Amino acid sequence: MDVRVTTDPAAFWQAVSPFLQRDPVLNTIIMSNVYERANGTARAEDEASYFVSVHDPEIVGVAMRTPGRGVYLGALREDLAEPIAEKYADLLPELPGVAGDRPAAHTFADRWVERRGGKTTETTATRLHKLIDLTPLEADCGAARPMNADEIDLVGRWGNDGFAEEFATGYREWAEKQLAQETMWIWEVSGQPVSMVGFHLPIFGVCRVGPVYTPPEHRRHGYAGALTSHVSAKILAEGNQACLYTDLANPTSNKIYHQAGYRPVADFVDVTFSA
Fold first, then answer.
1. Which of 100, 110, 116, 218 qualifies as a FRET site for 158, CA 20 to 30 Å off?
2. Which residues, listed in sequence order, are joined to residue 10 by a DSSP beta bridge?
3. Of 171 and 120, which is predicted with more confidence?
4. 148: DSSP letter
5. Given this model, what pLDDT does residue 162 score?
6. Would you tell me how many other CB atoms lie within 10 Å of the CB of residue 73?
7. Would you say residue 169 has pLDDT above 70?
8. Are strands 59-65 and 184-189 parallel, antiparallel or unpaired?
9. Chain centroid to CA 271
């Protein structure tokens, strides 16, 4: 078994994309992150990303570590987690954590603390869903429309409010990108934005829906569900598949997406490292 590492996203993409495209829904996170860095559409970063592939002799697993984040394993086989942990332990003095399939994530975490010390804590559990049969959802009132140019600050602020852990910096730049790519939709009631739903541009025919955010004062009116189903219908109409992630600690959102036609594909966990 050969474990290889590179900091070149374009070279990594060329090497692993045939492996990833076997299941572009299951591999959506790593595909979008690598692809955006490979084609230069990702935000400029001060540090290098470290991409790992496991060969036996063909590619059988991949992982990535992008700046400021933990290692992402995705649906990695458990038996590949320890050699990947060894590779990252040789490369990096510290990590905030690891995310992926639960057995693989915990195997990686156990080996990491053996090498680097510290403790591990499982924090977040998420579920990947794929849209199987869309059922449009309705809201109390309002309608969907694309994000407007004068809503960059609003969208950036909502992103900051709802996804502080996911978007550490650059909210305005992130919102500008959504506007330029036409990947952010707003639910509007009487001229007032009340909810937003974004999506990622298709990679191998798959669009990942998110982020989904409604300010607290506008919740419980069905806005996010209606807007998510609207965005999902748009994705389908353009000939692509739709998928999304939910927090397993939020049964309400899981129920809503199930009603819209999304069905579970796989569960993942985040494991954090501490001293």
1. 100
2. none
3. 120
4. P
5. 74
6. 27
7. no
8. unpaired
9. 16
- C-alpha distances (whole Å) from 12 to each of 9, 15, 39, 63, 71 are 5, 5, 12, 11, 16
Query: pLDDT tens across 120-155, in order?
Result: 999 999 999 999 999 999 999 999 999 999 999 999
Q: Which two tokens stand for residue 10?
A: 């374009």
- List, for residues 54-73, the tens digit of each pLDDT value: 999 999 999 999 998 999 99
∠ Cα 245 249 251 (to 5°): 80
Task: Report the relative pairing of strands 262-274 and 143-146 from DSSP bridges.
Answer: unpaired
Order of strands across the sheet that contains 71-74: 2-6, 50-55, 59-65, 71-74, 97-100, 262-274, 119-131, 241-247, 206-213, 192-199, 184-189, 143-146
Strand partners, 203: 206
For 86-125, what is the HEC assignment? Answer: HHHHHHCCCCCEEEECHHHHHHHHHHHHHHHCCEEEEEEE
Whether residue 157 contacts residue 171, with contact meaning beta carbons closer than 8 Å, is answered with yes
What pLDDT is recorded for position 264?
Answer: 97
Separation of alpha carbons 102 and 81, rounded Å: 11
Helices (runs of H) and strands (runs of E) counted in the chain: 8, 12
Cis before residue 24, ω within 30 degrees of 0? Answer: no
Confidence (pTM): 0.94
Q: Would you call 266 exposed, middle or buried from its count of C-beta atoms within 10 A (0-12, 13-18, 19+)?
A: middle
Rounded to a whole number of angstroms, the CA Rg of the chain reads 19
Contact of 207 with 181, CB cutoff 8 Å: no
Q: Where are the beta strands (DSSP E) in the chain?
A: 2-6, 50-55, 59-65, 71-74, 97-100, 119-131, 143-146, 184-189, 192-199, 206-213, 241-247, 262-274
Q: Has residue 271 got a pLDDT over 80?
A: yes
